[in-house]
Amino acid sequence: MLGNIKFIGELGKLSLIHESILHKCIKTLLEKKKRVQLKDMGEDLECLCQIMRTVGPKLDHEKARSLMDQYFSRMRSLTINKELPARIRFLLQNTVEQRANNWSARKAYSDNGPKTINQVRQEAVKDLGVFIPQSNDGMRNEFFNENSYLPTRIKFDRETLGGLADMFGQMPGSGIGTGPGVIQDHYSPTMGRHRTNPLYNGHNGNGNGSHQPQFEAGSKPYTKPSQISLRPAQSFILSKKQIPKLQPQMPMIPSSAQGPPLGQSPQLGLKTNPPPIQEKPAKLTKKPPPTKEELIKMTETLVADYLNSKNVDEAVNAVRDMKAPKHFLSEMLNKIVVYSLDRSDEDKEHASTLVHAICTEGHATGENLLQAFLSVLDQCPKIEEEIPLVKSYLAQFAARAIIAELVTIAELAHHLENGAHFPLFLLCLQQLVKLKDREWLGDLFQLSHVNMQKMLPEIDQNKDRMLEILDGKGLSFLFPLMKLEKELLKQIKVDPSPQSIYKWIKDNISPKLHTDKGFVNILMTSFLQYIAYEINPDDDEEQLSAPTKEQLDEEKQQMLSFKPVMQKFLHDHIELQVAAMYALQVHCNTKGFPKGMLLRYFVNFYDMEIIEEEAFLSWKEDVTSEYPGKGKALFQVNQWLTWLETAEEEESEDEEY
User: Fold this and answer.
1) Taking a C-beta distance cutoff of 8 angstroms, is the pair 583, 525 a contact?
2) Distances (CA, A) of 121 to 107, 126, 168, 178, 183
3) Which residue intervals of 281-416 are DSSP H helices?
4) Each residue of 452-480: pLDDT tens digit?
5) What's the pLDDT tens digit per position in 315-372?
6) Is the pLDDT of residue 175 over 50?
7) Can you tell me which family this protein belongs to (predicted)?
8) Nearest to 117, CA basis, from 169, 185, 166
9) Which of 220, 266, 324, 579 is surrounded by the fewest CB atoms within 10 Å?
């Protein structure tokens, strides 16, 4: 499965799969399956992380930013869910952080294979920060004398050097490797070959290749000090910028001509009084940040004090002084909400005010609030044992957050699809009606483009059941056209007079919808269904194909009776007239396009001046797959439309003359 997901992602990167399919894959992996516990969704979530890492950067553009934000908001909430295995939570967290870092993956250690000993030495020296000049042996020895330019932060002695020497395969006390550019001490066996040089520190070689050093006459026996320090004298500490400038000026002069180096005995040339170690001043220790337990305790104290004093400014200042890290903000808001659940309605309202103030002051974001809300929902089964109405209380918090524009209806709905925590979403809408009004909520809901059927449990996801549930919650006003579709035909059957029909529409349908294509479609469909029922109550197919003269006359009379209502809503609105014709097309398609039915209606609509010529021709030229049966409809009326178009052209020519 993981391989297939990666393959799909790679196809998406090459634009061989449309983005809508990739989004559908992501939604499928992210949605909680019915009768599947969260802890068993690890495989889906691992695949989700894989497809995000593969094709996430391509999908994360401006047009799809809101979708991506919703995906990652859900992923963030899952990172703190203890039901998931730690490995899956860390995978999710890494993916979230990768997006926050502009889709740059973490730098991982990579082993590029075996290395030569020179490469190992160079990397070790580079890690230690030691500058090693590449020059002849004499220069190197002179450079690494007691006063060499080594950083003051490194101290080499036999104990610290032993581990490093072991790493390079040498015994303690030997030099670090061999060859040019290698650090040597005075007591390394490999230094013997340099002592054949008569200029080497006042010693003469014996000329036989032996490593036994020969001292000048009068010199005392060699004494090995107990410890070697490579720390230079303070006067010789130079910056990195100064060192390259001084290298060419270092003279190749025998030590005997120069005199004993600084800090050495004139007889032995050995260091007798090493410079003191310069200790760096101790850094001031910063106060460690508060632990999670301390932050939780501070939050609880803050909420308790606020609910007693009701001083919002003081509470917001306390939040600012907490200096809580970003990852704790959601949990802080969670604690504020949970703390107030078993309090009075007044305290709940004050807690909402505090949350609003914290977010508007910039101490937390709407995303933090949404994560806090979702984490409280995850605790609902336990909380409901002590607070049965917890969902109603949470609906109040969500409604106030929506009114304050901290969270949108669409963002909330995304996490409650397929009946998750049902009926919380409907309770939230009810609270919005109480806090605002129906018209405000109706406009806001229309702009949100939320699919209400998807907010119900899967078993209830159909129009009839949805309208029944919304009626029970007093929310059917959100779908006035659906109510019109169900009730208008009943009203026409009760009283088909145009005055009664018009009055019912005026009393039950908002004037804003009178110019809506959906309203016109339902109005025309109801008239056509009523006429069909009146002239052929048994829906006899033979009568549909070959109606009697009496039936044709009855059909025409019914159309004339409804003419005032149709003209009232269609007059001077070409686009609404086209919508009425599509309703007629679908009606005929439902009946199986009986011979002559569509043409008969077209002629009557034209003669009664219900539909204008321009609307007929617009319908002919319009191309859409939204309404079935267009091809068959055109076949039945194409000859008449051609005549209409020709007649209109002739009429326009006559007007010109």
Assistant:
1) yes
2) 24, 8, 8, 10, 10
3) 292-309, 312-322, 326-340, 345-360, 366-378, 380-386, 390-403, 409-414
4) 888 998 888 888 888 889 888 899 888 87
5) 888 888 888 888 888 888 888 888 888 888 888 888 888 888 888 888 888 888 888 8
6) no
7) Belongs to the eukaryotic initiation factor 4G family.
8) 169
9) 266
Token readout for 447 is 């702009």
Position 209 pLDDT exceeds 70: no
pLDDT over 90, % of the chain: 18
Q: Which residue has the tokens 């001083």?
A: 311
Distance, CA of 160 to CA of 162 (rounded, Å):
6
Residue 219 DSSP symbol: P
Matching residue, tokens 């305290």: 347
Host H or E run for residue 97 = helix 86-100
**CA of 319: how far to CAs of 212, 303, 306, 361, in Å?**
75, 10, 11, 10
Report d(CA 275, CA 271) in Å as an integer. Answer: 10
Q: Which residues pair with 204 in a beta bridge?
A: 214
Give 273: exposed, middle or buried? Use CB within 10 Å, 0-12, 13-18, 19+.
Answer: exposed
Distances (CA, A) of 4 to 9, 24, 74: 9, 15, 23
The number of angstroms, rounded, from the C-alpha of 326 to the middle of its chain's C-alpha atoms is 16
Of 437 and 129, the one with more pLDDT = 437
- Please count the other Cβ atoms lying within 10 Å of the Cβ belonging to residue 430: 19
Contact at 8 Å (CB) between 580 and 566? Answer: yes
Give the angle 323-324-330 at the CA atoms, nearest 5°: 145
CB proximity list for 133: less than 8 A, separation 6 or greater: 139, 140, 143, 181, 247
CA 161 to CA 172: how far, in whole Å? 7
Q: Is residue 134 scored above 60 in pLDDT?
A: no
Check if the beta carbon of residue 476 is closer than 8 Å to that of residue 426. no
- Residue 637 confidence (pLDDT): 92
Residue 449's pLDDT is: 87
User: What whole-number distance in Å separates Cα of residue 541 and Cα of residue 545?
Assistant: 6
CA distance 80 to 182: 52
Rounded distance between C-alpha atoms, residue 511 and residue 498, angstroms:
18
SS3 readout for 519-577: HHHHHHHHHHHHHHHHHCCCCCHHHHHCCCHHHHHHHHHHHHHHHHHHHHHHCCCHHHH
CA 92 to chain centre: 11
272 within 8 A of 264, measured Cβ to Cβ: yes
Half-sphere exposure of 389 (CA within 13 A, CB side): 10
- Specify whether the CB–CB gap between 339 and 386 falls below 8 A: no
Distance CA 616, CA 606 (A): 9
DSSP string, 36-83: --GGGGHHHHHHHHHHHHHHHHHH-SSTTHHHHHHHHHHHHHHHT-TT
In SS3 terms, 125-172 reads as HHHHCCCCCCCCHHHHHHHCCCCCCCCCCCCCCHHHHHHHHHHCCCCC
Residue located via tokens 């599947």: 36
Query: 120: pLDDT confidence band, cut at 50, 70 and 90?
Result: confident
Q: How far apart are CA 47 and CA 50, in angstroms?
A: 5
DSSP category for residue 111: -
